[in-house]
Specification:
Blueprint (H helix, E strand, L loop, with lengths): L3 H20 L2 H17 L10 H20 L1 H8 L10 H13 L2 H12 L4 H8 L3 H18 L3 H11 L1
Helix pairs in contact: 1-2, 1-3, 2-3, 3-6, 4-5, 5-9, 6-8, 7-8
Length: 166
């Protein structure tokens, strides 16, 4: 059985780095780490031993931080999810399209965007993190890519997002 203290001691650094990478603020990340471990401890009884604790905590941290960003503003979320922010010059129309797209994505879809397009994880790695089959992850990524292409109408925004997402 997992000991809560040992779990925190072993993994708090990795969880903190994940939170900093997504939230881009040390204080917010420190607070998020506490929230992540509270959620982890609350779900400890449901934790399946076939997943590594780090994989499980990574998924909780990602989901939590994306929700924090979503609660703040779509602008911050957009900055975190786009690969290499600032690399692409996007017109105001393009920015409005991206904002509209990110506002309409579910938390699960935002999580997929973060894992696949920001972190560069493979479908097998995403499968481990999200505890879904690789086939399911592949289908969801394909549907998400189609959804993103359909929602973007401005050519510039489509080009920037397609470069960012794959």
């Amino acid at each position: 059985m997992l000991d809560a203290g040992a779990l925190f001691e072993r993994y708090h650094g990795v969880v903190y780095r994940r939170c900093v990478a997504l939230l881009r603020n040390d204080d917010d990340a420190a607070e998020a780490v506490q929230d992540v471990f509270e959620k982890a401890l609350a779900g400890l009884g449901r934790f399946r031993l076939h997943a590594a604790p780090l994989t499980w905590l990574y998924a909780i941290a990602t989901r939590h931080c994306l929700q924090v960003l979503r609660n703040r503003s779509v602008h911050e979320l957009k900055a975190v999810l786009l690969v290499e922010p600032g690399t692409y010059e996007i017109s105001e129309t393009g920015r409005a399209d991206l904002t509209r797209v990110f506002e309409q994505l579910s938390l699960e879809e935002l999580e997929l965007v973060a894992h696949a397009y920001r972190d560069g994880l493979t479908q097998d790695e995403i499968s481990d993190v999200t505890r879904q089959s690789r086939k399911t992850v592949g289908k969801k990524l394909k549907a998400l890519a189609a959804k993103l292409q359909l929602k973007l109408e401005a050519g510039e925004a489509r080009y920037a997002l397609s470069r960012a997402v794959g």
